[in-house]
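Could someone model magnesium ion with this protein?
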Amino acid sequence: MDIRIGNGYDVHALAPDLPMWLGGVHIPSETGFVAHSDGDVAIHALCDALLGCLALGDIGHLFPDTSDEWKGVDSKLLLEKVVALVHEHGYAVGNVDITIALQRPKLAPHIAAMRQVLARILGVTQDRVSVKATTTERLGFVGRCEGCEVWATALITKA
Ligand code: MG
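Reply:
Sure, complex below.
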């Protein structure tokens, strides 16, 4: 069996009066992400995990933040393109696991929606999409509500 694993990591800064998108879902919040795209840091980490499986670099390389083409882009579109790349290489997504570190707001009410949205784009059932959220107990830049940190792991199998 040909299986591959990859990991991804991303951070975005928080600022007042910006939209907060995480895992393809809009999260009601007083702060949102400073970014060239819609700032969906969870999807960015997931894209990097999938690209890492195939040693294809990272999303910054694929979708440069200097390009107007990707300005304000819906990150779900970036994930769709990365999944298409996985399929082009003859692989299908096995499962993914995402950990989001954010002090506030509480993400628990939004986890189910994130799993649903991501599973649809990844072409898998929701039991293959894990999304976990944690605070950092007020420690570090996450704890000071200055930013959000995400780790993602992806496994793909030769179709
Ligand atoms: Mg990013």
